[in-house]
Specification:
The chain has one domain. It contains two helices and seven strands, in the order αβββββββα. The strands form two sheets. The chain has a four-stranded mixed β-sheet with strand order 1-7-6-5, covered by helices on one side. A three-stranded antiparallel β-sheet has the order 2-3-4, with no helix packed on it. It is globular, with a radius of gyration of 13 Å.
Length: about 100
Amino acid sequence: MDTLSETIETLRKEGYNEDFNLQQNCLECRAGQFKMLHDEFIIDKYFRFEGDSDPADEATVYAISSEKHNLKGILVNGAGIYTQDITDEMLNALTIKH
């Protein structure tokens, strides 16, 4: 997949229908009505997009699932998780493990 929009469209077809927002100590969706802690989800896959000349154009798309809550969704992080004010647990949960 070459573009951010193509990636999101493909993930939607795979059932990643929630839109997650990164908060200090959780992921939330459904306009803040639902929250998941760091140990309630996993990163299934991720895609990185880099800007040609501007670091502000960089983004990472995370495909996230939670067996506990029977949810699948997407988190798009434009600036990088290291610039966010989040807990160590959330940072660790979102760190790509090779």
